[in-house]
Amino acid sequence: MLTHPIVKRLLAAALLLAVSHLAHAATIPRRSHVDGEVLVKYRENRVLERTVHYRSMWHLSTVQTYPASGIRKVELPTGMTVDQAVALYQSDPDVLYAEPNYRYRLQALPNDTELDRLWGLVNDGTSGTMDADVDADQAWDLETGSRDIVVAVVDSGVDATHPDLAANIWTNPNETDNGIDDDGNGYIDDLHGWDFAEDDKHPVDTHGHGTHVAGIIGAVGNNGVGVSGVNWQVSIMPLRFITAADYGTTADAIEAIEYADDNGADVINLSWGGPDYSLALKNAIDATSALVVCAA
Q: SS3 of 107, please?
């Protein structure tokens, strides 16, 4: 059903973190080194002469010396960049090396008790081959997701009461559970998504697949319980169109996709497929403004 004409729209679900709150991440300064200083190592017999030279000629002042290694921490004058200082030192044959004063950060590993079972995200060799994973721990150093990002899981439903998912379930901000279509979107009391297979407000998972997919995308991280999703925090929009018998229709899938797009989903996840190509499904996907992620 989903074949090569739309492969350009397909991404691996395990990389979903890359789209989660990137705009927020980009606004946070993450300098790889300290501004205004460099580390320098002179040749042993030229230390005093070169130290005086750089201080008098370029106002580069040694502010700290590390005796065991002979490395000097040098403070740069106003207006000189780290790159300029490094280039200046590296042009001197009496300098063994000069480099930025790099920053290091602790890895952002969550405290979830069953993290070692997530061999696809972080593999320490306990389950399978060490480092045969997507290095999610390195991504978590940069970003762990955001509940401002809405991911629609078009699937068999989601167990919204699951202790590792409940806090990350989407709530329709314009709807209340009162028997009225408050937001006028054609769905009454769609507070936490919709069931397109049964046409009701309870997208409860009667199969298990949708809950599994939702957990990969966004099981609550760092909560001391269970596992962690690629996103520790995110808003999962449960949209059910596949029944307990593992059966869903193109029409229901299209309606779910359009619902997701109309109700603010940033990402629409389709972890399913079929034997035949559907142009209608392709057109529904092409019409969305969301990023569509599919099983391939």
A: coil
How many whole angstroms separate alpha carbon 234 and alpha carbon 147? 4
Residue 285 clears pLDDT 60, i.e. is over it: yes
Global pTM?
A: 0.72
Angle at 255 between CA 252 and CA 256, to 5 degrees: 85
Whole-number Å distance between alpha carbons of 95 and 112: 48
Say if residues 191 and 203 touch (Cβ distance below 8 Å): no
CB 229 within 8 A of CB 221: yes
**Phi (first) and psi of residue 234, to 5 degrees:** -170, 170
pLDDT at 224 over 70: yes
pLDDT digits (tens, 9 = 90+) for 138-160: 999 999 999 999 999 999 999 99
pLDDT at 242: 92
DSSP label at residue 77: P
| CA dihedral over 171, 175, 176, 181, signed as positive or negative | negative
